[in-house]
């Protein structure tokens, strides 16, 4: 496990509590050192402060998620109380959870253990099976690649898993809690994570993300994948017996 925080007091407390919980913990005091250690040692989990010298936490997260050795690394962010924008951006970049400063070290340990459990459970629910084609979307679960209209889409690990699940369950509504459990194997967590990943996925698969037609919102319930391109065109020039083109059914 790796803790990256430039505040020596915070780093020492966090490291001590995690060590007493049975984890082997390394520490880094700045962004470049933290990024280098994360890449070199591939820890089980990264506790990452956002405000760091050299390279900030969001940039570290962005670089890790863009690399093969950091795409699946569980990450818990340490954020300041008023940094809501940074917390949302962290979730968009693929953070698994966040703890707001000042925080209880015991709460942090519980969050870390929860993320580790979710990460291990999620490994058992990775998409499998053959290639899925829906309209101009083609998803290959073995190669973990998605193409739309012949152009490859660059998806994060969680975006890919979410799209694979939705493609295999068209026209079915799922709540955010159900998506957390069935897509990533998380029994509990911040439901806004699902909202963020849906929004990011829409930006990559929808013609107009502001007016989505594929991944639609069912208000008060959740989300549904509507493969409109797969549906037959309506027979607008054929009337049912007894119907009138102007007034409808007789």
Task: Produce the secondary structure layout.
Blueprint (H helix, E strand, L loop, with lengths): L1 E3 L3 H13 L5 E3 L2 H11 L4 E4 L7 H9 L9 E6 L3 H10 L3 E5 L3 H18 L9 E3 L2 E4 L4 E4 L2 E3 L3 H12 L4 E2 L1 H9 L7 H14 L9 E4 L3 E4 L17 E2 L3 E2 L1
Parallel strand pairs: 1-2, 1-3, 3-4, 4-5
Antiparallel strand pairs: 6-7, 7-8, 8-9, 10-12, 11-12, 13-14
Helix pairs in contact: 1-5, 3-4, 6-7, 6-8
Task: Explain what the structure shows.
The protein is an alpha/beta fold and 250 residues long. 38% of the residues lie in helices and 20% in strands. The chain contains eight helices and 14 strands. The strands form four sheets. The protein has a five-stranded parallel β-sheet with strand order 2-1-3-4-5, sandwiched between helices. A hairpin with a 4-residue loop joins strand 7 and strand 8. Helix 1 packs across helix 5, helix 6 crosses helix 7 and helix 6 packs across helix 8. The radius of gyration is 22 Å and the shape is elongated.
User: What is the straight-line distance between the termini?
Assistant: 72 Å
Radius of gyration: 22 Å
Helix/strand structural class: alpha/beta
Into which percentage range does the β-strand content fall? 15-25%
Task: Please tell me what the overall shape is.
Answer: elongated
Quick one: biggest sheet?
5 strands, parallel
- Overall mean confidence score, pLDDT: 82
Low-confidence stretches: 229-250
Could you give the order of the helices and strands?
Answer: EHEHEHEHEHEEEEHEHHEEEE
Instruction: Please give the order of strands in the largest beta sheet.
Output: 2-1-3-4-5
- Contiguous helical run count: 8
Number of strands: 14
Helix content: 25-40%
């Amino acid at each position: 496990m790796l803790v990256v925080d430039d505040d020596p007091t915070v780093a020492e407390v966090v490291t001590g509590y995690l060590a007493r919980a049975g984890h082997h913990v390394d520490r880094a005091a700045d962004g470049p050192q933290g990024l280098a250690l994360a890449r070199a040692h591939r820890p089980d989990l990264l506790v990452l402060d956002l405000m760091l010298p050299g390279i900030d936490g969001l940039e570290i997260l962005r670089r890790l998620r863009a690399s093969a050795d950091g795409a699946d690394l569980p990450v818990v962010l340490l954020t300041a109380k008023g940094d809501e924008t940074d917390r949302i951006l962290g979730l968009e970049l693929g953070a698994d959870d966040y703890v707001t400063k000042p925080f209880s070290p015991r709460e942090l340990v519980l969050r870390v253990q929860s993320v580790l459990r979710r990460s291990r459970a999620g490994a058992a629910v990775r998409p499998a099976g053959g290639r899925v084609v829906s309209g101009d979307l083609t998803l290959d679960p073995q190669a973990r690649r998605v193409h739309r209209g012949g152009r490859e889409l660059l998806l994060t690990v969680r975006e890919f898993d979410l799209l694979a699940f939705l493609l295999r369950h068209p026209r079915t509504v799922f709540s955010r809690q159900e998506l957390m459990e069935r897509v990533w194997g998380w029994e509990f967590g911040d439901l806004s994570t699902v909202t963020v990943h849906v929004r990011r996925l829409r930006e990559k698969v929808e013609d107009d993300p502001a007016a989505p037609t594929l991944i639609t919102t069912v208000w008060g319930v959740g989300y549904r994948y509507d493969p409109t391109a797969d549906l037959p065109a309506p027979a607008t020039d054929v009337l049912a017996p007894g119907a009138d083109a102007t007034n409808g059914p007789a």
